[in-house]
Design a protein that fits this description.
mainly alpha
């Protein structure tokens, strides 16, 4: 039972970032070819939902 959970966790730890990166890459390629569209916007939103981009930290010094 524990082995099954560890295997599921390992698959999700790899599959979710790969799926988000793939959706983001497909969105960028669609936008570069055809310009912004509903499909590219939905792909970007889906990638952000799966794995949001971390905001860059602002440094005040």
């Amino acid at each position: 039972m524990i082995r099954k959970r560890v295997a599921q966790w390992a698959v999700m730890a790899v599959a979710v970032p790969v799926a988000a990166a793939g959706a983001r890459r497909l969105s960028h390629s669609l936008e570069s070819r055809r310009g912004p569209s509903r499909a590219s916007r939905l792909l970007t939103q889906g990638a952000d939902m799966l794995r949001p981009q971390k905001a860059k930290r602002r440094r005040f010094f």
